[in-house]
């Protein structure tokens, strides 16, 4: 989270809190770089993480501390106190975006200025870092690509910061021990990671990620069909099913000229909610609604569903016409598709996507939706900047959006019922999932 200039230097002088434990912290990267090769510095940024449509949650101890502090009471006001009582940071609408009520006009956090970094909620202290306990006992750092410093790899090496950030974040998330096939066969952690390794290897191929993912969807269906027969799979059965799946013929895959209905629904929910004023409609907001907010939020969804009309999308400098986006060439099969493949492999390597026990195919579904999100957002951004084609900066910003909405910061458990039903439909009808990929291929 946005920090006071100088705080970083002070923190770096203090011994990292986790260092004495001999904690091993390794940053996974598909580029083969060591953790020290990544960089971070919280500066030259308009407090992006304090101005996002999300509800930052904190625990009971922090809640009691904030509710008893006169400065917090005065700054939050009665509505903000009610939100704090629910364990969330209150936000207010400002220039068409939400921002934390504790953010000052100088782009710095008033809580940090007054009480120090350790007073902040843990997620703010640790941002843009997260941690996952991997299968071999290593603690893997998750650097959010939503943060411009991480995205652009600028600042100081992150290595010396990792142990302190781990302590600030309250420790590492555990990986699930089990995943399920759609037929209910249980896969142990080594077994589902074996499948994920196959996915990661496939995504190294220099082909469009949309095409590779479509092939992996077919392979995964064949894998699951070859595994049916028991509640638990043996290692030998998993290996045999993987061989069968790799030998299976993929279905024909061709780009769609227009987006499938399911693609438009997904984008209406995901990117539609990043449009003004939909993005203001958060449960932790304390400022009053803007004019006709509900009707305009519904109109945003219709614009995405019909792919006609204009939207004011978060992170874009001006509203764009979705009709113009159709004219921007799709890029996943070209040079910039490599950035997306690298990102997908990073998502698999950093293991956060395996935190919850769920259907293994749902993990692949997330990679598919994430790819479509990156691609469509990048094309929208190219329009906003008046470019005829997507460039690398558009793709990197699209990756940040995928982090925000799906692959890093979003809680799947908080998605509304219609989104869960849409996801399930895509899981049980792979041809519709291929249609989503074909819409951006
Ligand atoms: S998004 Fe990153 S650089 Fe910007 S304020 Fe937050 S932590 Fe700092």
Mind explaining what this structure looks like?
The structure is a single chain. By secondary structure, this protein is an alpha+beta fold. It is 46% helix and 8% strand. The strands form 5 sheets. It has a 4-stranded mixed beta sheet, covered by helices on one side. Strands 2-7 form a two-stranded antiparallel ribbon. A hairpin with a 5-residue loop joins strand 9 (178-180) and strand 10. Helix 9 packs across helix 10 and helix 15 crosses helix 16 (392-407). The longest helix has 25 residues, at 360-384. It starts with 6 loop residues before the first helix and ends with a helix. Residues 5-24 and 27-34 have low confidence and may be disordered. It binds iron/sulfur cluster (SF4). Iron/sulfur cluster is lined by residues 1-2, 42, 45, 47-49, 127-128, 147-149.
Distinctive features:
single chain; 441 residues; alpha+beta; 4-stranded mixed beta sheet; two-stranded antiparallel ribbon; 12 strands; 46% helix; 8% strand; globular; binds iron/sulfur cluster
Q: What's the helix count?
A: 18
CA radius of gyration is 22 Å
Ligands bound here?
A: iron/sulfur cluster
Number of strands: 12
Structural class: alpha+beta
Q: Give the overall shape, derived from the CA principal axes.
A: globular
Strand content: 5-15%
Low-confidence segments, given as residue ranges, are: 5-24, 27-34
Order of helices and strands: HEEHHEEHHEEHEHEEEHHHHHEEHHHHHH
Distance separating the two termini: 36 Å
Sheet with most strands:
4 strands, mixed
């Amino acid at each position: 989270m946005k920090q006071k200039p100088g705080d970083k230097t002070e923190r770096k002088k203090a011994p990292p809190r986790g260092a004495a434990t001999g904690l091993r912290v390794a940053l996974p990267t598909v580029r083969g770089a060591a953790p020290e090769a990544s960089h971070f510095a919280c500066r030259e940024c308009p407090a992006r993480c304090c101005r996002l449509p999300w509800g930052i949650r904190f625990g009971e101890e922090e809640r009691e501390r904030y509710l008893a502090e006169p400065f917090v009471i005065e700054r939050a006001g009665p509505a903000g106190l009610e939100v704090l009582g629910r364990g969330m940071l209150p936000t207010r609408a400002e220039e068409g975006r939400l921002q934390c009520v504790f953010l000052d006009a100088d782009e710095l956090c008033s809580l940090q200025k007054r009480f120090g970094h350790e007073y902040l909620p843990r997620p703010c202290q640790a941002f843009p870092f997260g941690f996952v306990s991997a299968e071999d006992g290593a603690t893997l750092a998750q650097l959010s690509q939503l943060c411009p410093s991480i995205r652009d790899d600028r600042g100081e090496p992150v290595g010396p910061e990792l142990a302190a950030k781990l302590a600030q974040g309250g420790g590492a998330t555990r990986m699930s021990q089990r995943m399920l096939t759609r037929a209910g066969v249980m896969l142990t952690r080594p077994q589902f990671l074996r499948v994920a390794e196959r996915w990661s290897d496939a995504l190294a191929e220099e082909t469009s990620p949309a095409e590779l993912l479509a092939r992996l969807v077919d392979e995964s269906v064949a894998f699951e069909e070859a595994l049916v027969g028991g509640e638990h799979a043996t290692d030998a059965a998993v290996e045999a099913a993987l061989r069968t799946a790799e030998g299976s013929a993929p279905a024909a895959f061709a780009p769609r000229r227009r987006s499938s209905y399911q693609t438009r629904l997904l984008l209406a929910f995901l990117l539609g909610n990043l449009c003004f004023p939909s993005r203001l409609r958060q449960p932790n907001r304390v400022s009053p609604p803007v004019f006709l907010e509900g009707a305009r939020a519904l109109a945003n969804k219709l614009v995405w569903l019909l792919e006609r009309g204009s939207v004011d999308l978060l992170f874009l400098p001006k509203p764009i016409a979705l009709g113009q986006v159709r004219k921007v060439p799709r890029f996943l099969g070209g040079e910039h598709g490599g950035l997306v493949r690298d990102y997908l492999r990073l998502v698999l390597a950093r293991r956060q996507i395996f935190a919850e026990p769920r259907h293994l195919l749902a993990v692949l579904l997330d990679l598919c939706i994430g790819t479509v999100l990156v691609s469509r957002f990048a094309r929208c951004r190219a329009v906003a900047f008046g470019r005829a084609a997507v460039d690398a900066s558009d793709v990197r910003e699209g990756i940040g959006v995928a982090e925000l909405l799906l692959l890093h910061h979003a809680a799947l458990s908080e998605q509304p019922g219609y989104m869960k039903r849409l996801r399930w439909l895509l899981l049980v009808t792979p041809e519709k999932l291929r249609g989503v990929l074909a819409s951006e291929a």
